[in-house]
């Protein structure tokens, strides 16, 4: 089986440390189309967002996972944004089954599928 994996490139993420100092970090996010996920590895930890292609140009984004060691760094937001960009560019409608993605879309005024 041929595995298609697309390196999306570097995505900037702004983080704030406990002292309030804002830093930025570049993430390398990969889109594994065969595995239906967006993923990144940071400091030896893997974070990912998974989706199902339901056909009829519809994606169901049903899970984001960021390990405890990486939380609070904007990684889930970066994964979500890349997935939504992919969906938009490919003409997909998104169903945000993942509660994080649903809140992200509400905060950023992105539209979900009308069911």
What this model shows, in words?
- It is a single chain.
- By secondary structure, the protein is an alpha+beta fold.
- The protein is 22% helix and 45% strand.
- The protein contains 2 helices and 6 strands; from the N terminus they run βββββαβα.
- A 6-stranded mixed beta sheet has the order 1-2-3-4-5-6.
- Mean pLDDT is 83; it is low at 1-7.
Features:
115 residues; six-stranded mixed beta sheet; 6 strands; 45% strand; disordered N terminus
Q: How many distinct helices? A: 2
Task: Give me the secondary-structure category.
Answer: alpha+beta
Fraction in helix: 10-25%
Total beta-strand segments: 6
Distance between the termini: 34 Å
Order of helices and strands: EEEEEHEH
Sketch the major β-sheet.
Answer: 6 strands, mixed
Task: Please tell me the overall pLDDT.
Answer: 83
The strand order across the widest sheet is 1-2-3-4-5-6
Low-confidence spans: pLDDT under 50, at least 5 residues?
1-7
Q: Tell me, what's the shape?
A: globular
How much β-strand is present in the residues?
A: over 45%
Our Rg estimate from Cα atoms comes to: 14 Å
């Amino acid at each position: 089986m041929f595995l298609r994996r697309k390196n999306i490139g570097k995505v900037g993420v702004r983080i704030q440390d406990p002292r309030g100092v804002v830093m930025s970090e570049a993430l390398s996010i990969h889109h594994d189309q065969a595995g239906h996920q967006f993923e990144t590895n940071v400091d030896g930890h893997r974070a990912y967002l998974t989706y199902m292609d339901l056909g009829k140009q519809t994606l169901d984004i049903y899970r984001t996972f960021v390990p405890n060691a990486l939380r609070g760094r904007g990684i889930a937001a970066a994964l979500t944004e890349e997935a939504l960009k992919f969906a938009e560019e490919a003409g997909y409608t998104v169903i945000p089954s993942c509660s994080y993605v649903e809140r992200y879309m509400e905060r950023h005024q992105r539209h979900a599928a009308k069911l």
